[in-house]
Amino acid sequence: LGMPAVPTKLADRRVSRKIQVGKVAVGGDSQISVQSMTTTRTSDIGATLQQIAELTASGCDIVRVACPTQDDADALAVIAKKSQIPVIADIHFQPKYVFAAIDAGCAAVRVNPGNIKQFDDKVKEIAKAANETRTPIRIGVNAGSLDARLLKKYGKATPEALVESALWEASLFEEHGFGDIKISVKHNDPVVMVNAYRQLAAACDYPLHLGVTEAGPAFQGTIKSAVAFGALLSEGIGDTIRVSLSAPPAEEVKVGIQILESLNLKPRRLEIVSCPSCGRAQVDVYKLAEEVTAGLEGMEVPLRVAVMGCVVNGPGEAREADLGVASGNGKGQIFVKGEVIKTVPESKIVETLIEEAMKIAAQMEADGITS
Ligand code: SF4
After folding, report:
1. Cα–Cα nearest to 146, from 137, 136, 156, 138
2. Which pLDDT band holds residue 339 (cuts at 50, 70, 90)?
3. Can you tell me whether residue 63 is helix, strand or coil?
4. N or C terminus of the chain with fewer C-beta within 10 Å?
5. Residue 273 Cα, ligand 1 centroid: separation in angstroms?
6. DSSP 3-state assignment of 5?
7. Where does [4Fe-4S] cluster bind (predicted)?
8. Distance in angstroms (rounded) separating the CA atoms of residues 277 and 284
């Protein structure tokens, strides 16, 4: 009997309806997408497009822009047209900006109909306009802006309160025959957030946008998001993700992509397998790993590069990788596909690894292997 196959994913994906956010499908069997949000004034078209270009380069699939003023609404048409990735307009309270965003050709709108219900027929009109243009809408329930009625009923933003709010918001559109919806129920506490999404996942078939809101500065926010998204994605829940960090948006994208790659939900690109170093290390592993990472940044092929500090685990790991180094005695043994191809002095390790990585990458590209 052979060894059991190593599972490549943790769970089957929850069955959700598929919606189309511009060129990016969300839900169903589509690839889980990574989103971020610009931090520029949307009315500053140049700065916003510049940031969107940076996000696109970092691998962002969908970008959201805030639309709090008429000037922002006026900028949407140019931004939606020039952006390489679908643009979602983020709107609170103002139905007129929702119509402006739909007219501007935004790929989707984030708006909570509960916010605009007081404008009576506006929800119906939005449903009609969105239906006609096939513009999906994200309903985004946040712990911090939970409906007063539900806060009173539940005392605080519990998972049940978040889910009830989301389903009620969705029903306001459903009444008008509109169902091109995706939903988020964000909370800053990963435990509440995970429970809310689990309940929501069981209660509807809308695609779900995962987010831990106000997750904090990069270090804390990365961990909170990774833990919460990891729990949900490992159960097959989640169709698009946004990591919220008090850091530049491209950082959010890097973290989001890494979370998906870690769970085999997105093909891995460059992966550096480096040891944590210990008392046996015969080389500065941190520096070496950093230099190799920097030298290979932007590589699009699924290359696994091992950087090991000594000869204990070094050769083993280096052999498992496409390329690797095991250091010792001021030298580095360079491995390619399990074979030692040369031994170089420590000062030449980085450049040799980069040189060999380029050769392998060129071969992979020639063979059509890209991630
Ligand atoms: Fe320590 Fe060597 Fe393992 Fe690195 S590879 S952690 S230096 S034993």
Report:
1. 156
2. confident
3. strand
4. N
5. 12
6. coil
7. 275, 278, 310, 317
8. 8
